[in-house]
């Protein structure tokens, strides 16, 4: 499956990038049911690891991830867990600020889980990604105005 969303943000690419590379800023816009925890020291350099934990009572399933690509304005995480894939965050400077593109591409190896996802969670995932980008936009624009990049 592939979900790709984008949003125009009236802030510099540097400010927008901080919102998905700084753990405190990230937790301001992530879905409250999702928590990111570093494995070791937090970093977005290639090879850095973390895990995303779904805050579901009793289960708390998690996805292990590793940064596999890093350039200015770009971070790509590779996931392993109940699904496998990549989450790409890219900032593209524009005349008005920054175009943020998020591409989440994955497979679900278990056919039963895959069927259940398609049936129950695919639409919710797309809507949740859009909501996250709107929250990230608010955080980035406030951060940009506060720090005057």
Explained architecture:
With 149 residues, the chain is of the alpha+beta class. It has helices spanning 13-21, 23-29, 111-147, and strands spanning 2-9, 34-38, 49-54, 62-71, 74-80, 84-93, 98-107. A hairpin with a 3-residue loop joins strand 5 (74-80) and strand 6. Helix 1 (13-21) packs across helix 2 (23-29), helix 1 crosses helix 3 and helix 2 crosses helix 3. The chain starts with a strand and ends with a helix.
Instruction: Tell me, briefly, the overall form.
Output: globular
User: Residue-averaged pLDDT, rounded?
Assistant: 93
Beta-strand percentage range: 35-45%
What structural class do you assign from the helix and strand content? alpha+beta
- Strand order, biggest sheet? 1-7-6-5-4-3-2
Report the C-alpha radius of gyration, rounded: 15 Å
Helix content: 25-40%
Q: Summed up, what is this model?
A:
By secondary structure, this protein is α+β, with helices and mostly antiparallel strands.
Characteristic terms for this protein:
single chain; 149 residues; alpha+beta; 36% helix; 38% strand
Describe the protein's topology:
Layout: E1 2-9, H1 13-21, H2 23-29, E2 34-38, E3 49-54, E4 62-71, E5 74-80, E6 84-93, E7 98-107, H3 111-147
Antiparallel strand pairs: 1-7, 2-3, 3-4, 4-5, 5-6, 6-7
Helix pairs in contact: 1-2, 1-3, 2-3
């Amino acid at each position: 499956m592939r979900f790709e969303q984008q949003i125009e943000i009236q802030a510099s690419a540097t400010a927008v990038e901080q919102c998905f590379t700084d753990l405190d800023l990230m937790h301001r816009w992530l879905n409250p049911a999702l928590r990111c925890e570093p494995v070791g020291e937090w970093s977005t350099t290639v090879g850095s690891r973390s895990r995303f934990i779904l805050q579901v009572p009793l289960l708390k399933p998690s996805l292990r991830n590793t940064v596999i690509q890093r350039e200015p304005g770009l971070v790509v995480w590779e996931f392993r867990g109940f699904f496998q894939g990549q989450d790409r965050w890219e900032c593209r400077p524009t005349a008005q600020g920054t175009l943020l593109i998020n591409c989440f591409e994955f497979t679900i190896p278990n056919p039963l889980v895959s069927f259940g996802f398609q049936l129950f969670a695919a639409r919710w995932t797309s809507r949740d990604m859009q909501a996250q980008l709107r929250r990230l936009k608010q955080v980035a624009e406030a951060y940009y105005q506060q720090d005057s990049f």
